[in-house]
Input
Amino acid sequence: MSSQFDVVVVGCGIAGLSAAVSAAEAGAKVAVLERAPIEERGGNTRWTEAFMRMKNEDEVADDFEEHFMANAGFNLDPSLVAETAQPYGDWSPIVKALSFTDPEMVVTLAREAGPTLAWLKTAGIRFSDMPTYLITQSTTRICPVGGGLALVEALAEQAEQRGVTFFYETTLEDLLLDAGAVTGIRANGKTQRGIELSGKVVLACGGFEGNAEMQSLYYGERARYIRPVARGGYYNRGEGIRAALAAGAAPCGDYSDYHAQPIDPRSGQSEPIVFVFPYGILVDSQGKRFVDEASYTVDAIYENIARLINKLPGGTAYLICDSQLDRVPNWQRTVRSDQEPVTADSLEELAGKLAIPADSLAATVEAFNAATVDGPFKPLELDGLATRDLTPPKSNWGLPLNSPPYRAWPVISANCFTFGGLRCNTNAQVLDHDGRPIPSLYAAGETMGLYYGRYTGATSVLRGAVYGRIAGQHAAQGG
Ligand SMILES: Cc1cc2nc3c(=O)[nH]c(=O)nc-3n(C[C@H](O)[C@H](O)[C@H](O)COP(=O)(O)OP(=O)(O)OC[C@H]3O[C@@H](n4cnc5c(N)ncnc54)[C@H](O)[C@@H]3O)c2cc1C
Output
């Protein structure tokens, strides 16, 4: 089989498949490498419902760009940020290579979202605004019918029809370089090591949420409690990011954080989230509260709460609810664990079952109940039913916990995907530490670094589709 291609795409999720199809559409001879066997192809994309922060199929949500730019990085130098008001060509090399959310990247993502969805529709994808597992929301979302799996299957079929060559169970090990330019990749197959394929390279092989060593290096001790939120994440082990950094790529995206989700550690389901915490209290292993469980709508706060949970002793919190949870319509929709909650008729019994100190839990609940006030409980909107004189407060849905049976879930912080990746420009070309494109090297999806602070929810699949498509086009057109 030939090892000469115009474009070699690494990864078979939304970013890689978008790149492969768009490159093939532009007439390129394309190869796709995928570490997983065919029946598990698609990494994280395979497991997501793929919500997209859109108002409709044409327009991104009203808060799209604002949310990104409010989370562009920490303590950014205002003199460098000011340069971004100038045309891109006038930016200094240190700004082009800066580790922050580049506004040009966000504007391009927002502008190309609608056209990219229209392009996905030509592959047979349909979109809808189906209800999400978020009972309360701060923004608008739509999703492809059939979720990420439908995206993977439809795009893979398009790629196959256009003659793209797939190498399954084949893992990128390194980039091939000649005088600083990328000329191809080296990979290990199931039976053959050291396979070399030549061509321009699009790295779309995810982040490093499946790599315990890299997470320990970047996150420190707290990494020991983290696991991928779904099976697909275990395939993403960071080889693409590592190889590009070694070839001189600049980093981008927050290497010290990840998109965190609160999940039930007892469950082996995909994404066994526990999003019902605004209607109870969260305590640590000593039975103490540590956070306002309901400071805002659940979509806006779950990530921060999951990160706080990760920093608790043992990396575990316990959500305590009582029978008043049944006043929340469809609360079951927001818990995707296949494990039943721990139940008990008294707090003492519950504490025993959770192995947390009973006297401490009783004192916490007593203080919490004493701080609740009478008022209308409106579970599907921010009702302002807040505690009084309590630290930390609970700002909404503050019903007392006094109606057994009690229900509890253990909760840990899962790594949905990593933030640290590669600095790219709006052509998806990977940049070096002087802001210059590394010849013939592209990145898309999680491999492309973009996020800092709070994840702009429901934008990672879009990022993969938009920049994967751009990378494929640009690479095929000889850019
Ligand atoms: C359960 C779940 C729910 C989510 N919900 C949403 C949501 O609603 N909206 C949203 O926008 N985002 C969501 N996300 C995040 C989003 O799905 C991912 O960030 C996005 O799909 C990543 O796409 P990707 O193409 O960059 O990476 P992936 O889809 O992970 O694909 C990477 C591919 O590269 C392959 N690979 C990895 N390393 C190598 C290697 N060395 N050699 C060869 N191949 C390799 C992997 O096998 C995989 O096929 C969710 C994620 C999960 C897991």
